Amino acid sequence: MSFEFSEFLRKLSSDEQLYNGNGNPINSSLKRRVLGDITEGRSPLRSERLGYLFSKKYSKLYVTYHKFDSSGKLIKVTERLDPDTLLTNKTLEISLDDWVNNPNPQGLPKSNVQNGILYFWKPVENKVAWFYADADGANLDCDWDPLFSDAFIGVRVAKILEKALKDEPSY
User: Fold this and answer.
1) In the chain, how many domains are there?
2) Is 27 exposed, middle or buried (0-12, 13-18, 19+ CB in 10 A)?
């Protein structure tokens, strides 16, 4: 789920020790550089699709996303959007730090998120969320066309640990 994204940003900005795919510690300088690469307002455009899909049922807004269950397995869920979710567009008005340190249970900004410099576009039916930063600043956009595709939607390199592969059932 995109809660993993807000949690990732929170961990990058914290004093918590993080490790790379080889299990080696990541120094604080690299953490700051990665966080800056994702969130700082500058060119070129960098972005990540977050995996939220918003829908309506019986005039209530729902969100479909992925999260880890109690056993650590990644599952897809559809649930009513938390009532404490920010549902107003905020241009240059929400705090990245407050969002990532105090998200709602679905990883989105709460209705009482502190002021800051992050652009926020509210969830809209039949749209998806993505995070992007460019020369104008950083944006959390929850009203994006789910069919949109472009080369600027990037992905980070990930390494699968051998232990994870050994734990997977073979088919």
Assistant:
1) 1
2) exposed
